[in-house]
UniProtKB/TrEMBL annotation:
Family the UniProt entry places it in: Belongs to the transferase hexapeptide repeat family.
This protein's record includes keyword Transferase: yes
InterPro entries registered for this protein in UniProt: Hexapep, Hexapep_transf_CS, Hexapeptide_acetyltransf, Mac_dom, Trimer_LpxA-like_sf
Entries under Pfam families matching the protein: Hexapep, Mac
Lineage: Bacteria, Pseudomonadati, Pseudomonadota, Betaproteobacteria, Burkholderiales
Name of the molecule in the record: Nodulation protein L
Domain of life, per lineage: Bacteria
């Protein structure tokens, strides 16, 4: 049996984003974000309830400060005590996992969406995704970009403004564009 475009998307295969089922999921995510981003003055319990409605999984004590933007929401799984500051973007065409106690600065973009390198395939409107996994107790500085397919190990540190194009081992500090290992300072 042939896969639907959504099934292809979730499997990380080439898919067409203009598919009606995918478009409906994006519309539902936009509606959810409008509600979530309009929560000024709401308490932590209300925000947690909305996060649980929009995300695939939400750990205890997780905080996502609005405004926040994503493609679908249901592919995002965040652990206990995770903190995302203002203006974060997660393009979640496939899974994004963020481990317990990870802190993410303002304006960080986590981007699973990718496009074919072949211009003929791009012209057909095809896309694909590569999952991102961020370990426990990671700190990602303001404005960093986490590119498709990257895994960041536990206790890593990503410098502000860095562009992370490759996996980051546990406990390593990376900075720059492209992000490269640096000696950590206290």
């Amino acid at each position: 049996m042939a896969l639907t475009e959504k099934q292809k998307m979730l499997a990380g295969e080439f898919y067409t984003a203009a598919d009606p089922e995918i478009q409906a999921d994006q519309a539902a995510a936009r509606d959810w974000m409008e509600r979530y981003n309009g929560t000024r003055g709401h308490g932590p319990a209300d925000l947690q309830a909305l996060l649980r409605e929009g995300f695939g999984a939400v750990g205890e004590g997780a905080v996502v400060r609005p405004p926040f933007h994503c493609d679908y929401g249901y592919n995002i799984r965040i652990g206990n005590g995770v903190f995302l500051n203002f203006n974060c973007v997660i393009l979640d065409v496939v899974g994004v996992e963020i481990g317990d106690m990870t802190q993410i600065g303002p304006g960080v973009q986590i981007l699973t969406a990718d496009h074919p390198r072949d211009p003929a395939l791009r012209a057909q409107g095809l896309e694909f995704g590569r999952p991102i996994r961020i370990g426990k107790n990671v700190w990602i500085g303001a404005g960093a970009l986490i590119m498709p397919g990257v895994t960041i190990g536990d206790d890593a540190l990503i410098g502000a403004g860095s562009v992370v194009t490759r996996d980051v081992p546990a406990g390593v500090t990376v900075m720059g564009n492209p992000a490269r290992p640096r000696a950590a300072s206290a």
